[in-house]
Design goal:
By secondary structure, the protein is an all-alpha fold. 73% of the residues lie in helices and 0% in strands. It contains 1 helix and no strands. It has one helix spanning 13-50. It is rod-shaped and about 85 Å long.
Length: 52
């Protein structure tokens, strides 16, 4: 061997943010469903307390 090996890290921030945006876009339908179910429970509880 002629020398010590060098570690070269090629880190592209634009690629990182593109990957993060892809993951966020993929998870948004799940978030919308969970928010809808939660809002439904809030509305049901409001109706139950309004008519008691």
């Amino acid at each position: 061997m002629t020398g010590t090996p060098q570690l070269s890290i090629n880190f592209d921030t634009a690629q990182m943010f593109q990957w993060a945006q892809t993951m966020i876009d993929a998870m948004m339908p799940v978030v919308y469903i969970i928010m809808g179910v939660g809002l439904g429970f809030i509305v049901i509880r409001a109706f139950k307390s309004a008519f008691n």
